[in-house]
Amino acid sequence: MEYFDSHAHYDSYRFDEERDDIINKVYNEGVTRIVSAGYSLEGTKINLELSKKYPFIYTTAGISPNDLGEDWQQDIEEIDKIIMDNLNSGKILAVGEIGFDYHYDIDKKIQYEAFSKQIDIANKYELPIVIHTRDAVMDTITMLKEKTVKNKGIFHCCPLNRELVKEALKLGYYISMAGPVTFKNSKNADEIIQMVPTDRMLIETDSPYLAPEPVRGTTNNSINLKYIVKKIASVKGMSEEKIARLTYENAERVFQIAK
To answer: Is the peptide bond before 97 cis (omega within 30 degrees of 0)?
Structure first.
């Protein structure tokens, strides 16, 4: 059985002591494709180097709402240049993670401008987007209704919110399931899993964060995709092998990876 981890962060300092060992172990355990996603200028650069080192690792390029510093406009210009310079490598698969996060006190106007500018970059290079949204359901949906995204994209670690999932699916986006669908206190998990068609579903770890049950609280890595697959398979009444295969194919499709 092979898995595609559609969103992880192997650039994280939490992997500094054993990054290569973990990445190789993950691959040997059947995780044969990984998107180690960008979220800041520095993170994008590190992940791009990782993607060049490992044939099975890909990346995204973008500035998340939580990483909008004083020079955010210059950072976005640099992201544009990085994508342009590496577009033909086949390693940068999307613009992201980008979006809205109202959990912290970050200027909403700046978040809007940054999200909008990075959607423009995605459209320029005909790439999908990877969306981060927290405590900002309606504004996220409004943005995506008002501003066309040519190649749509993915709600990464999608919040377990019925309205968000319903509207995201209507707009043509994919929904990525992460560790929270396994948490014992995730009241909506089963319902959300049932809402998402198997041809629009991805899986991810968001490593090193959000380790699923039964390893919740540990440093997450892509081997733990198996617990997310097990949960989805149980709710959907399907085999784990089929869920792994379908989510793998979906990730190849949305990220436009040639087989």
So the answer is: yes
Q: How many CB atoms lie within 10 A of CB 72?
A: 20
Q: Identify the CA nearest to 127 among candidates 149, 145, 156.
A: 149
CA dist., res. 186 & res. 46, Å (int): 33
The pair of structure tokens assigned to 216 is 């919740």
Residue whose token pair is 């377990």: 160
Domains recognised in the chain with CATH numbers: 3-254 (3.20.20.140)
Radius of gyration of the chain (CA): 17
pLDDT level of residue 187 (50, 70, 90 thresholds): confident
Assign 51 a pLDDT band (cuts: 50, 70, 90).
Answer: very high
The two structure tokens encoding residue 114: 């940054």
Are 91 and 36 a contacting pair, CB within 8 Å?
no
Distance CA(46)–CA(178), nearest Å, equals: 23
- What pLDDT is recorded for position 258? 75
Residue 53: helix, strand or coil by DSSP?
helix
Instruction: Let me know: does 8 contact 97? Beta carbons within 8 Å.
Output: no
pLDDT value at position 259?
65
pTM of the model: 0.97
Q: Order the strands of the 57-61 sheet from edge to edge.
A: 3-8, 31-36, 57-61, 92-101, 129-134, 153-155, 174-177, 201-203
* Count of all residues that appear for the chain in the document: 259
Spatial distance between the Cα atoms of 104 and 134, rounded to a whole number of angstroms: 10
pLDDT of residue 48: 98
**What is the rounded CA–CA span in Å between residue 105 and residue 101?**
9
Q: What is the DSSP string of 191-219?
A: HHHHHS-TTSEEE---TTS-PPTTSTTSP
Q: What is the pLDDT of residue 52?
A: 97
